[in-house]
Amino acid sequence: MKKPRSLRDKVVLVTGGAGFIGSHLVDRLFLEKPRAVVVVDNLYLGRVSNLREARSRYGRKMRCYWKDAGNLTVMQRIIRLEKVAVIFDLAVVPLPASLRDPLFCATENTRLTTVLCDLLRRGLYETLIHFSSSEVYGTACTVPMHEDHPLQKSTPYAASKIAGDMVALSYQHTFGLDIAVLRPFNNFGPRQNDGNFAGIIPEVIRRVRSGQPVHVNGDGKQTRDFVFVGDTVEAAVLAYQVAGARGKVINVGSGRETSINQLIRTLLKILGQPRHPVMYRAPRPGDVRRHCGGARLAKSILGFRPRTSLEKGLQPTVAWYLRQELRGSRGRR
Asked: I want to staple 257 with a disulfide (CB 3.0 to 4.6 A). Which of 103, 233, 292, 331 is the partner?
């Protein structure tokens, strides 16, 4: 068995590093003792505050550029200046944006990945770990949904992520590049976006705390595979370390189906509001009906299994949002 590769003393760059998953990955990467971690984020979704603890803890070992990761000239300059060896690609225009501006979403997501692939082809850095999305599978044809599940263009966002994956895999195949693709299912945890394009968990918490009914798109019977963000970033590090991941697409899922109704009931229980009103609205366009991740490659190649159940992960997640609410109220006094 080959010895795992190490990130020790390497300069690692994270696109979208001020975002939800990206900022947790930044925290996790420092445990590998890199020479430096570089963040590139245009703050479309990311927040500087997500990196507050990391910047305080790691000081000069962390450098941030509030730039567009899809700009070839900018990325070329940063990679050369910082002497980057490894890039984790998390920059993205999210699914809800594709329903408002599909052209922007489709072109930007494809461009973000293609720029990084071409800079790798030119030899500017060594390794790309590209983040895909379970949305590329659409509604489940078979359960669990393994990596060979058919790809379905259920939304412009899904199509853009399929395109990005194909670009990354084509560069790996054609030019023999060091690329791996991760497909995480529905991540949750502290720092998930609670503003524009908010995820369902922070949105439910916000509406309950403000005394508003919880809104559900559709009948709530649609299912998702929720994965705690701490588990996902662990899989990302393994995807770099394990040589067998090169050229592979690897799901990161729990293998457990949870309906939106079940999720909301659990959240309301944790919030101490089990009878809080829930209102149902028209389904969101292109919304997938059923998701349940198959993670056999994560297990066989990476030796990875998620450690955090939905119930276990929701407790610190809710607590984090309540702390943010408390800090916000103090700041308004």
From this structure: 292
**Which sign, positive or negative, has the C-alpha torsion 324, 327, 331, 333?**
positive
CATH level 2 (architecture), domain 11-191+227-255+290-307: 3-Layer(aba) Sandwich (3.40)
Q: State the Cα–Cα distance between residues 288 and 248, nearest whole angstrom.
A: 25
At 268-303, the pLDDT tens digits run 999 999 999 999 999 988 899 999 999 999 999 999
Whether 157 is catalytic: yes
Model pLDDT for residues 238-268, shown as the tens digit of each residue:
999 999 999 999 999 999 999 999 999 999 9
> Is residue 284 classed as helix, strand or coil in its secondary structure?
coil
Contact 183, 169 (CB under 8 A): no
Cα dihedral 93, 43, 224, 297 sign: positive
- Under a CB-based contact definition with an 8 Å cutoff, are residues 105 and 98 in contact? yes
Instruction: Give the type of residue at 323.
Output: R
